[in-house]
Write a structure and sequence with these properties.
InterPro entries: AB_hydrolase_fold. The protein is an alpha/beta fold. The longest helix has 14 residues. Helices cover about 30% and strands about 25% of the residues. Helix 1 runs antiparallel to helix 5 and helix 3 crosses helix 4.
């Protein structure tokens, strides 16, 4: 099983917002409507988050819940109920990959929701930064333990959709505690990286995943 330094993962997804030319060699540039992801030559799947208004209307703010048949996606692990917008985003990426299979998945924000879903489906390590809560239901899923989420306690996106509607994050979660809150930019990858550097020096966050 592959092991990745958390800072390397954070920098990859940060750079993904700048496009393929700012990443290591890219095998496939996945673009489909509002969905964007990069499949690197080492089989790492990098999924940036929301960078257009359409991302919110097509995924983040899509209400309701849905099922993805894991059997149809190559992993006979049963069914789970997901936030409809996040599930649609993840399904589009999986369909574009076809028979290709990632060995590691990294995502931020909307991309972190997809990373959680796809990490379970493919059964590979996944790291989500600024992760929302895509799963509805308490039962633990196969491969859920391979997923890590890194969140800030002042990041509102990490509390969406609300728990009172039955949603939760997949797998493990590292919660970072900033000394001062910056609500205007606390969700961005640069802010996450700044806080990660502080938390790593203090030994408050894991340095790599899987451990």
């Amino acid at each position: 099983m592959r092991n990745m330094d958390l800072m390397d993962a954070a920098e990859l997804v940060r750079d993904s917002y700048k496009g393929a030319s700012h990443l290591p060699p890219v095998r496939a540039d996945i673009t489909e409507a509002h969905v964007e992801a990069y499949f690197l030559s080492d089989n790492t799947l990098v999924i940036p988050g929301s960078n257009q208004l359409v991302d919110y209307t097509k995924a983040n703010l899509v209400t309701g819940k849905t099922k993805i048949s894991w059997d149809q996606m190559g992993k006979a692990s049963g069914n789970a109920i997901w936030h409809k917008g996040f599930a649609g985003h993840a399904s589009t990426i999986a369909n574009k990959l076809g028979r290709a299979r990632p060995t590691f998945i990294i995502g931020h924000s909307l991309g972190a929701a997809a990373a959680q879903i796809l990490g379970c489906i493919y059964g590979v390590p996944a790291i989500g930064f600024a992760s929302p809560m895509p799963r509805r239901g308490r039962s633990r899923l196969t491969h859920e333990g391979k997923v890590l989420n890194v969140v800030r306690n002042d990041d509102l996106v990490c509390r969406m959709p609300p728990k009172q509607f039955g949603f939760r994050r997949i797998g493990n979660t590292e919660v970072m505690q900033p000394v001062t809150k910056n609500k205007s930019e606390d969700h961005s990858m640069p802010r996450y990286i700044e806080l990660m550097e502080i938390e790593r020096r203090a030994g408050k966050i894991v340095k790599s995943w899987p451990r």
